[in-house]
Hints:
By secondary structure, this protein is an alpha+beta fold.
Amino acid sequence: MGTGQMFLVLMAVVLFSTIILTTQNNLFTLAYSSYEAMIMMQGYKIADRFLQEIEAMNISGSKSIEDIHDQYSFADSMLRINMIDYYVTSTTQWCDRSGGSPTDSLHNYLRIDVRIDGILGNDTIFIGHDTNPISYIYGKMGM
């Protein structure tokens, strides 16, 4: 085997090992991104369940809108699903029907903001945050 052929063999080894490493790196990145997307989807489901629970209390009349405001004004809870910790934080504020500042003091509408932090190892995945939370507006039943 001549030096030219040896050089071509070495170049082929370098090329194929580079291709294999690049492919493995891209597969790892894709798997991690899909795992983060799954955690975000689970966080949105948790927020939806949380807001539906509040809506059921409001519609059924088991709690008044003032009771809901007091109970969820700054509520923290932690859920553990599939070895992932989800920290749920809710805040409430009185608002008008479009979610803005109330123009009267009748307290007919209540806005609830939910933020969830999914803890994945050393990473935190934020589902909703201070400037853009998951929000829902409830109206007082029987107004």
